[in-house]
Write a structure and sequence with these properties.
By secondary structure, the chain is mainly β. It contains 9 helices and 67 strands.
Length: 1158
């Protein structure tokens, strides 16, 4: 069946559903008759909130009035007037009949109304306020059966440096029943943010998700963000994150669905091996190997050795969606034998993408025959590019490229146009040289140089496929032909369209016997700009699968147990493509398809026999045959034995043999896996066994090829199962690896690993979790001569919480060590909306045409840049240590309060925090994980490191009449950026005193000594040596409960000794505030602040950290904030800020916002 016929079938199936939708219109409309007396104003309004235009009929004195000539009707306001020439009396009545829609809305909503009542005491009528039972409340709007929560925000901002701008936000969650049969679930927001959730938790919280689901027993409608996960047969697999509409219908035994959506990403699968001593990060790439991609949050599925992993810092892996990198936690040991497979969706922001899908299924003859089909279409919209602009020349290149992406390329070298002075101001200089006696031109990054006349764009082409390496954003260096990863070319993105349709039939002639038949066809247009090569877009596939579930078989009175059988016969045309991966994760490895071409016809047959003579014994044998084209053939024979009572003992053994022939190569691969354990009391001893022997040879030859391998791995283990809250697992791994050397299999290395896991939750006071892995790999002398070095790998993750003698001592301890690969960081300034950033650009101070780091300065108010740090390309093997601890001690609770020592120590409490993070290239791992701190933060070895310590001592903590806090904190930091090493040191020594003179007056005083030192590269202006001493006192006077008047003053001196002539700034600051509270309704806060900064020199560069956003001289600030609750679910906020800094102009900013809560 052609795909256009399948589309027609979908439309035909939808017609009944659509007709049902249209048919509902007659039940949602109703005819209403109103009686309206004549009035002198000649303004009449119907009683309902809406009217169907031209459906009205107005009768006066038994005659039907004519529209326009005898009356005029305004359908938008539901009002009408009579013509002045129409004869009528004040005693007449109009009969208005019309059609309206059942909207469930009232004509008006009001909380109170003014009514006239008779007062018996006064003997006269009076007007009183009456509270309406159904006012403008959430219950009146949504109905009593709907559970709702959310916020509606509307506001505006205007100021001297800001244009008038509106802000809005909607967050609404609904759930409940609209009617007896219809249920609604909704999560709505009108906020659109590019921020994705972090990939370090098991559950993701997306902040801009829009979702509406309406359920009926026979139908479901979904609007907004949703995941389409469906499988029809072998090939019709789809799992997509979409934005649009989806509807499903279910009239047993018939069901179907239709999905129309914008598609946010493309699907891809990455397969790669791990690396010894590297837990991550591992880079994910797009379909064409591109690395500048963004993984869509929550779409990834990560498999390690064929087993699906769980996301989260406390689980198996974490993922950086923005950088498309995956890092495994210490719970999962990664080696060069680890097989990693990742399915994911990603966006490269080249073209907008659209998706359409639909399918239906029906069952007949008591579900013995089931027929289903599905049609899927996804593709790029070539007329809607996103982050690219295609010229007519670009489109011509794409049109001529056909299906070959290597032809869709243009030069990335651009000669800069001369400026008004005739000077070409580029950032790259062309250099001519001779390589192998041939003239060759390469480009050198030299911004600001008089010979730099070119701007050059580079593209990633793969390791050892290019001539350049990337040193920073926009900065590339020539390293030699085919010695780099980048070339000065631009790959033009090719829009594609993929369509897939399949039809399946399932027949169940007997109980436990099923025959599945499937036919699938695909159309893959690899270049929508070009008609070239479109003749090979179509491909097809078929599948026949017979499955006999294990059933009881007897021979006379002799029971043979249960026997099951299955047979699969699958054919895939070389041009067939699918929307998703339909094979099992390690299918290619299982059938040893390395070296075969996927652009060949594939024939796959597999038969499987399952024997269950007794419930405890299960034997499965299978034989498979795979053929691709005429040259590749692979035969597989697999046997699995399992003996288990599901409680005490389990024995498992699998033997797998694969015989592969490909052109002149032949391969024999024997794989074995086994596991056995026995549980007695609380102990579970066991042993795990893995072995493989793969021999790749050329036909007629005995020498082994490089793809050959052999290993033996034995893993005995012992597990303690929940002994009074204690769990413990110990495992020892013994592995020998063999690889071909000079055509013969020789021992490469031996690996020994110890793996421990400890959990304890036996008492309430202590809970702990520990994962420890130690692995050593030693190479033989033959391989050491080839440059292989012994490796040591250590993974530790420990997390503990303590709570002794509640509430005397409580604390926590975290420690994590892993080996990874990390890169130096690069500082990048990104432009944002003015006022939302924290940096301002001073301009091209050095005239090199590049925005350098020292040309940005921090700012508090009108910043239009933010600082990001991104990793560079070069990765270094590192050890990553993270540890922190926190302890809170209340000494007064240790001893009895009526004792002398208890009385003395009762007001004393302390809080201690210590955090260390270190990413270093130190070769001796023991120096790091044993925390020999003199080897931390070493220039040239440390990539990033921090050491932060905080000690607080409290006397009478949280007491208002008199309390003290003594604080000491210090922080050492080092970062190795691409522009150089930056070190920092901060120290704070402070005393805080709080006391209350009388009930109405309280004072808080802070005495602070602060040191802030930074040593940065010459390209940065961040270097400083600041010593700051200041005293701050805050007086608060509260004469009555709802009024507070405060006065705050601060005096201090800051000295920066980094310049040759130190900079000294004296500060005096005063702040007056008034707070007025309105009981349960609002608050008004007024502030006026004056800061004066006096410097001893104006010649030095003054760091932002000394000014804190102020200007030298006098700085004035005034602020007003007013919050008022209009109703229980309506909050308004008005704020006004003004400032006058130094000799600058006065800046005003006003904001207003209203929030409605549901």
């Amino acid at each position: 069946m052609k795909l256009r016929h399948q589309t027609l079938i979908i439309v035909l199936l939808l017609i009944p559903a659509l007709s049902g939708i249209f048919a509902q219109n007659k039940y949602s409309t109703v005819t209403v008759t109103d009686s309206i007396p004549i009035n002198l104003n000649n303004q009449y309004e119907i009683n309902n909130v809406s009217i169907i235009p031209f459906s009205e009929s107005i009768v006066l004195r038994g005659s039907v009035l004519e529209r326009d000539s005898e009356y005029q009707f305004s359908y938008s306001t539901t009002t009408f007037t009579l013509s002045d020439t129409l004869p009528y009396s004040i005693f007449d009545t109009l009969i208005v009949t019309y059609q309206t829609v059942r909207l469930g809305l009232q004509k008006e909503y009001k909380k109170r109304s003014l009514v006239v009542r008779f007062d018996e005491d006064r003997g006269d009528t009076i007007r009183v306020v009456q509270t309406e039972g159904a006012g403008f409340t959430p219950e009146a709007i949504f109905g009593p059966g709907i559970q709702k929560s959310g916020t509606l925000i509307r506001g505006f901002t205007v100021g001297t440096t800001k244009d008038f701008s509106l802000s809005s936000g909607l967050r609404l969650q609904l759930s409940g029943k609209l009617t007896e049969d219809i249920e609604v679930v909704a999560a709505l927001t009108d906020q659109n943010t590019p921020i994705q959730p972090e990939g370090n938790t098991e559950r993701l919280e997306e902040i801009d998700k829009v979702f509406i689901q309406i359920k009926h027993p026979n139908a479901t409608g979904v609007f907004g963000d949703y995941i389409l996960n469906n499988r029809n047969g072998e090939f019709g697999v789809i799992n997509r994150k979409l934005q649009g509409l989806m509807g499903t219908v279910n009239f047993d035994p018939h069901e179907g669905y239709v999905a129309i959506a914008g598609q946010r990403g493309k699907f891809n699968t990455n397969n790669f091996n791990g690396t010894d001593q590297v837990q991550g990060p591992y880079q994910l790439t797009g379909l064409n190997g591109e690395r500048d991609i963004i993984v869509l949050a929550g779409t990834e599925k990560v498999f390690l050795d064929g087993i699906e992993m769980l996301r989260g810092e406390n689980n198996d892996y974490i993922i950086e969606y923005a950088n498309a990198t995956i890092t495994f936690t210490p719970k999962r040991l990664i080696t060069n034998a680890s097989r990693i497979s990742v399915d994911f969706e990603y966006t490269d922001r080249r073209y907008s993408r659209n998706f359409f899908g639909g399918g239906a299924s029906s069952s007949f003859f008591d579900n013995k025959f089931k027929l289903a089909f599905q049609y899927l279409q996804e593709g790029d919209d070539q007329d809607s590019p996103i982050d690219i602009v295609l010229s007519d020349e670009d489109k011509q290149i794409l049109s001529e490229a056909g299906d070959d992406p290597l032809k869709a390329v243009k030069s990335g070298i651009f000669l800069v146009e001369p400026d008004s002075l005739g000077i070409r101001r580029g950032i790259y200089q062309a250099v001519d040289t001779l390589i192998n006696s041939e003239l060759f031109t390469y480009y050198v990054y030299k911004p600001g140089d008089s010979l730099s006349s070119y701007n050059v764009s580079f593209s990633y082409v793969g390791n050892k496929q290019g001539d350049y390496v990337r040193e920073a954003l926009g900065q590339f260096r020539f390293v030699g032909i085919d010695l780099g990863e980048y070339l000065p070319i631009i790959f033009l993105p090719i829009p594609q369209l993929k369509r897939l349709g399949n039809i399946t039939a399932s027949i169940t002639p007997f109980e436990n016997v099923t025959l599945n038949l499937e036919y699938a066809g695909s159309l893959w247009d690899k270049n929508r700009f070009s008609n070239t090569d479109d003749g090979d877009n179509f491909g097809f596939a078929t599948n026949v699968f017979l499955n006999v579930l294990p059933s009881q078989v007897s021979l006379g009175s002799l029971s043979l147990g249960k026997i099951g059988f299955s047979y699969k016969d699958r054919f895939i045309n070389k041009k067939f493509t699918s929307t998703d991966r339909f094979n099992e994760v390690e299918f290619d490895r299982i059938y040893n398809t390395a070296g075969s071409s996927s652009q060949e016809d594939e024939q796959f047959r597999e038969a499987k026999l399952n024997l269950i003579p007794i419930d405890e014994l299960n034997i499965t044998s299978s034989a498979g045959f795979l053929k691709r084209g005429e040259s590749f053939k692979s035969d597989r024979y697999n046997n699995t034995f399992r003996l288990s009572d599901q409680q005490q003992y389990n024995v498992f053994y699998n033997i797998d043999y694969v015989d592969t022939r490909n052109l002149n190569r032949k391969s024999k691969w024997l794989r074995q896996a086994g596991d056995a354990h026995y549980i007695f009391w609380k102990f579970k001893p066991g042993i795990n066994y893995l072995a493989e022997n793969k021999e790749d040879k050329n036909k007629g030859k005995d020498s082994l090829l490089t793809g050959s391998l052999k290993y033996i791995e034995i893993n005995p283990y012992l597990q303690l199962i929940d002994l009074e809250g204690l769990g413990f697992t110990a495992k020892y791994s013994y592995r020998d690896d063999y690889f071909p050397l000079e055509g013969k299999m020789k021992k490469e290395s031996e690996s020994r690993a110890q793996i421990y896991e400890l959990t304890y939750r036996g008492i309430d006071e202590v809970s702990t979790l520990l994962n420890l892995t130690i692995r050593n790999r030693k190479y033989t002398d033959a391989y050491k001569q080839l440059g292989f070095l012994d490796t040591e790998q250590l993974l530790i993750r420990s997390q503990s919480k303590f709570n002794f003698w509640e509430p005397v001592i409580n604390g926590d301890l975290f420690y994590e060590v892993s080996t990874e690969k990390q890169a130096r960081l690069e500082k990048v300034f990104v432009r944002v909306e003015q006022g939302t950033g924290n940096y301002g650009y001073l301009g091209d101070l050095n005239g090199n045409g590049i925005a350098d780091e020292n040309e940005f300065e921090p700012t508090l108010f009108d910043g239009d840049f933010i600082l990001l740090t991104i990793p560079t390309d070069e990765l270094f093997p590192v050890i990553n240590l993270k540890t922190n601890t926190r302890w809170k001690i209340k000494f007064g609770n240790i001893f009895e309060q009526n004792s002398f020592i208890g009385t003395v120590l009762e007001p004393l409490s302390t809080e201690t925090s210590w955090r260390i993070e270190e990413i270093t290239r130190e070769d001796d791992l023991a120096k790091i994980y044993l925390m020999q701190l003199n080897y931390f933060q070493v220039p040239g070895i440390t990539i990033r490191g921090t050491n932060f310590f905080l000690q607080d001592i409290f006397i009478n903590e949280n007491r208002q009449d008199l309390s003290f806090r003594f604080r000491y904190s210090q922080r050492f930091a080092m970062s190795d950026f691409n522009t150089g090493i930056e070190t920092g040191y901060n120290r704070e020594r402070s005393i805080r005193i709080r006391f209350r003179l009388v009930k109405e007056i309280s004072i808080q005083t802070d005495i602070v000594n602060f040191t802030d030192n930074v040593d940065a590269s010459e390209f940065s202006s961040r270097s400083r040596k600041i010593s700051d001493n200041n005293i701050t006192s805050d007086f608060s006077y509260r004469p009555i409960r709802f009024l507070e008047v405060g006065f705050k003053f601060k005096f201090g001196r800051s000295e920066d000794s980094f310049p040759e002539n130190p900079t000294i700034i004296d500060l005096n600051s005063q702040l007056l505030r008034v707070n007025i509270s309105f009981a349960q309704t609002g608050r008004l806060r007024l502030e006026m602040e004056r800061n004066e900064l006096l410097a001893n020199t104006s010649e030095n560069f003054i760091p932002f950290e000394m000014l804190n956003g102020n200007q030298l001289g006098k700085n004035y600030y005034w602020r007003l904030n007013f919050d008022y609750r209009v109703a229980s679910f309506l909050q308004t906020t008005v704020s006004y800020d003004g400032r006058w800094q130094g000799e600058g102009r006065v800046i005003h900013t006003a904001r207003a916002e209203a929030r409605a809560y549901f």
